[in-house]
Amino acid sequence: MTHHHTYTITKDGQLLIKKMESDQVETVWDRHAAQQPQCGFCDLGLSCRICVMGPCRVDPFGEGPQQGVCGADADIIVARNLCRMIAAGAAAHSDHGRDLVEVLAAVAENKAPGYAITDTEKLNRVAAEYGIATDGKKPEAIAGELAYAMQEDFGTRKKELALTARAPEKRQQLWRKLNIMPRGIDRETSEAMHRTHMGVDNGWQSLLLHSLRNALSDGWGGSMIATEVSDILFGTPKPAPTKVNAGVLKADQVNVVVHGHNPVVSEMVMAACSEAEMTKLAEEKGAKGINLCGLCCTGNELLMRHGIPMAGNHLMTELIIATGAVDMMIVDYQCIMPALSKVAACYHTKMISTSDKARFPGMEHVEFHPDNAQKKAYDVVKAAIENFANRGEVYIPVEPLDAVGGFSVEAVVSALGGTPEPLLDAIKAGKIRGAAGIVGCNNPKIKHDYGHVTLTKRLIENDILVVDTGCAAVANAKAGFKVAEAIAHAGPGLKEVCGSLEIPPVLHFGSCVDNVRILVLAAALANELGTDISDLPLAGAAPEWYSEKAVSIGAYVVASGIYTILGPMPPIAGSMNVVELLTTGLQEVVGATFAVEPDPEKAAVLIRGHIENQRRNLGLDSAEV
Q: Could you tell me the CA-to-CA distances from 429 to 112, 420, 510, 616 in Å, in that order?
């Protein structure tokens, strides 16, 4: 018998797991259990399949082989494997950015019906950072030049990516000195794959240093471009009310759920859902309307800009289908389990894949491109409405909770009166001890949402402001931390500051690529103080991470100077040299390190200790009365 409470802390999750068990439908937790015991060599990072002289493995106990066929030892194998994880994660985020740049280019050429430039002020501001003159030019002309300049960032002709200029000058100088300043976005990933080929880079330190450069090409390159272009095309987020959890589904409406990461698809689906003719069609089919909801990061994109309700995060994706209320799930790419179509086949949900680079077994493929996305969105929403009649029993186990999202850097600075100075003043005065970014995925190895919610609760009650993205942001919204009343959970100083600004103590910063908003805010605070990011009382955490993208994010956050705690252990424990470099040695190199702590209670103590230490080093508390 399944113990549902051991899998997730969320009420909707527990009830839906129980339902799926009685429906005899397999879940991600069942598949995780079936995999036990997972390969110990792979878990430690000591297996290598990079060439066909292998596969090889190194014995962690020293009794079996200590090197692969080629002679690679534990340090080399672990470093190569980690390097490839970061390369894949950086490639995924940066390809997302490329897709958005291609839409921007198509808008400039009037070849993307339905898409438009929504934030011309931001367009002009970002264009200026690329050295593009904007005076007297139409937005479309500026967009064309900006798209071209951003495409150059993906290539190999530059020595430095344009947006690295946003980092504090001290940080830029450090990257140059270490030779990890990112050049071309694609170049760094390509070089990582070259270096890790058999017979190329067998220096574990040089491999790991290049991994930092590869990750920086994501954080200060591909992901930053993705966020900025999304804002230009779809609007820069502003705080707006929304609803979260499985209760956002509606029994009497056509429920269309978007899942994945790319707003290029979800924005068009949203436009189609709000068309009067679609609502009329839904009513003709016996529904009271169309209800669009999000899952994972494409849901976060819509929540941030339009207040669209959020049904859940990564480990809720199967469970949401099990409600029997989802008439269609439309996916694009990243974090979409191939198992979803098997779950959907047990209910009535129609599954649609939309990306030319992401196909899934059992899903109908309707490919979206900038020139046809508007029409394709109409087609799939019509099919969702037609599917409403095929519903069986509907089980929506909870009522939705209120939340507020939309805290872009611009929105935060605006709430502070147009400058980050009031935030710095609150930190200097000790009312806010510091800030932590809690990010990343869910992982069936860790109780669903427990890591995110517990860590957040402990930090805010100790006057540490939390900003969050991705699955962590959804977890905290479902825990009730994303409304103004949540200051009841905060310590006295944070309660006072957030109360006066009328903001929650946990700020929803967006999707996973939007971690770059945290970098931009950190850089602004460092510049205001005339120092480097590594001097600030800041920390990062990924309490339930699982994906290669999360490794890239962690690496660019540390390389930017922010101490970062990972929940699950990455596959590096087979090399104590690699472990020591990442958890200790990097302090001397980039001014920050990783820590690994799966217990969020202990992680909170580590973060609090780090933040207080940073305050002491800055002399912030010596002036306190």
A: 50, 14, 28, 13
